[in-house]
């Protein structure tokens, strides 16, 4: 441990929180709290646990932000980062390249479905999405179709915090006070079965979503639409699992209309659903582009990227345009430390974590669903190791709770006291623990969540 880290680790937790309140801008602050907000201090982590400023051990329910897939404090990952930094800490991707980036690209390409075989590395998910969309724009410019640029996205979507990626976001609270490239984006409905019209079957709901998609394409014209982007399972939107046939049908319409199908797998890749990529193995899809981030390094280093289809690249090469340039790259594209830790992380996933995630997921889902007995819980849904507990004012009507009930925040506060960190999303709690979680730990997690919800129900009486 360096002196600087040791010093911070020994300082009074309240002093650190005060420092943050005075000098740190945290993500997603309200105007009233921007630059002045106290958030719980987290000081350490091991396996599925984190330790807060008071030394209290908590289960890391959301695995950071759906990302600490291999768990905290993995020697195998930390040591590789140290070794790579000592060997080559940085390489400029403009003129030269590093070995970890080429080896990682090959390993990722081997897992990608269809003909996706080239990887462009970024610094996270937003920059991965941004890269994919700018690639679509470039691709259509080179092909002489500068009008074909609109992007279809959906309600409930979350694709990032950079300008273009954020313009795709579908949750009102992410958009209400922020500007975006609205003239480039067309929004469709979220494929959220829980909120489908009363009495409608899943099959009819799926038909309705597909009809909306077809109608949009014919109204606007396929010659104006460059891409559809979708999370196979909407994550931050509340773990929305769409009807089974919905994504394959959308994929087909995109192919028939020469609209690029971009699967945003920032959350669903690298083990969350038990596979390296879920598009092919879970949903039978062959997207044109897949974006990824988070679990690729288990959150140990900010890395993301996009995997692109050979067909698209071959078309560009064939055009052999003398001046056209995909003028897009980041200082930290293909960062050697990030790529090295991603390789070590893939070793861990292949070495047992993927198999464990597949084996434990049914128990995780089954146990969480027992919470549906509680009157405040409208639905527990999810698949793999991602789930959402949605609370409602009334189970029959599924009426949502008033925003100011802050039910997610209340559940989180109670659970924190009891030893579990929850990711509150207004009236929902998202659970996506490190993939190494065991049965006993799932039991602990669900027991705490049950008690946290019960205490919240008492608060609301
Ligand atoms: N795409 C999806 C599906 C996400 O869930 C997120 C972040 O949660 C992003 C993109 C943006 O990733 P990042 O926060 O790494 O920029």
UniProtKB/TrEMBL annotation:
Organism: Phyllobacterium pellucidum
Top-level taxon: Bacteria
Alphabetized Pfam families for the sequence: Aminotran_3 (PF00202)
Family note: Belongs to the class-III pyridoxal-phosphate-dependent aminotransferase family.
Name of the protein in its database record: Aminotransferase
Any one GO molecular-function label of the UniProt entry: transaminase activity
Cofactor field: pyridoxal 5'-phosphate
CDD domains per record: OAT_like
InterPro entries: Aminotrans_3, Aminotrans_3_PPA_site, PyrdxlP-dep_Trfase, PyrdxlP-dep_Trfase_major, PyrdxlP-dep_Trfase_small
UniProt keyword list: Aminotransferase, Pyridoxal phosphate, Transferase
């Amino acid at each position: 441990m360096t002196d600087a880290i040791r010093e911070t680790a020994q300082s009074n937790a309240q002093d650190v929180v005060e420092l943050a309140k005075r000098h740190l801008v945290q993500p997603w602050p309200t105007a009233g709290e921007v630059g002045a907000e106290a958030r719980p201090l987290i000081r350490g982590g091991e396996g599925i646990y984190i330790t807060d400023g008071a030394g209290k051990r908590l289960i890391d329910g959301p695995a950071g932000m759906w990302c600490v897939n291999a768990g905290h404090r993995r020697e195998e990952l930390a040591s590789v980062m140290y070794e790579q930094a000592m060997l080559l800490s940085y390489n400029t991707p403009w003129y030269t390249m590093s070995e970890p980036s080429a080896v990682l690209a090959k390993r990722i390409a081997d897992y990608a479905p269809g003909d996706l075989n080239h990887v462009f590395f970024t610094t996270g998910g937003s920059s991965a999405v941004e890269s994919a969309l700018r690639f679509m724009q470039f691709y259509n410019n080179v092909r002489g179709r500068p009008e074909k640029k609109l992007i279809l996205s959906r309600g409930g979507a979350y694709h990032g915090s950079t300008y273009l990626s954020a313009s795709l976001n579908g949750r009102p609270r992410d958009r209400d006070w922020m500007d975006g490239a609205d003239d480039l984006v067309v929004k469709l409905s979220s494929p959220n079965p829980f909120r489908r019209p009363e009495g409608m079957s899943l099959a009819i709901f799926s038909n309705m979503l597909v009809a909306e998609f077809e109608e949009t394409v014919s109204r606007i014209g396929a010659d104006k639409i460059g891409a559809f982007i979708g999370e196979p399972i909407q994550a931050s939107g509340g773990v929305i699992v769409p009807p089974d046939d919905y994504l394959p049908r959308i994929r087909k319409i995109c192919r028939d209309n020469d609209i690029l199908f971009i699967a945003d797998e920032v959350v669903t890749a690298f083990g969350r659903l038990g596979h390296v990529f879920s598009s092919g193995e879970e949903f039978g899809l062959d997207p044109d582009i897949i974006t990824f981030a988070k679990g690729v390094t288990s959150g140990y280093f900010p890395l993301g990227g996009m995997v692109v289809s050979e067909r698209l690249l071959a078309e560009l090469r064939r055009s052999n345009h003398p001046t056209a340039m995909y003028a897009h790259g980041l200082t930290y594209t293909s960062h050697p430390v990030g790529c090295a830790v991603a390789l070590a992380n893939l070793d861990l996933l292949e070495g047992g974590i993927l198999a464990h995630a597949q084996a434990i997921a049914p128990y995780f889902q089954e146990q969480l669903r027992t919470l549906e007995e509680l009157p405040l819980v409208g639905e527990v849904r999810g698949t793999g190791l991602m789930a959402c507990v949605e609370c409602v004012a009334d189970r029959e009507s599924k009426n949502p709770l008033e925003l100011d009930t802050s039910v997610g925040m209340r559940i989180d506060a109670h659970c924190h006291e009891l030893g579990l960190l929850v990711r509150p999303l207004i009236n929902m709690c998202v659970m996506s623990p490190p993939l190494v979680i065991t049965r006993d730990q799932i039991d602990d997690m669900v027991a705490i969540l049950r008690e946290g919800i019960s205490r919240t129900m008492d608060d609301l009486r």
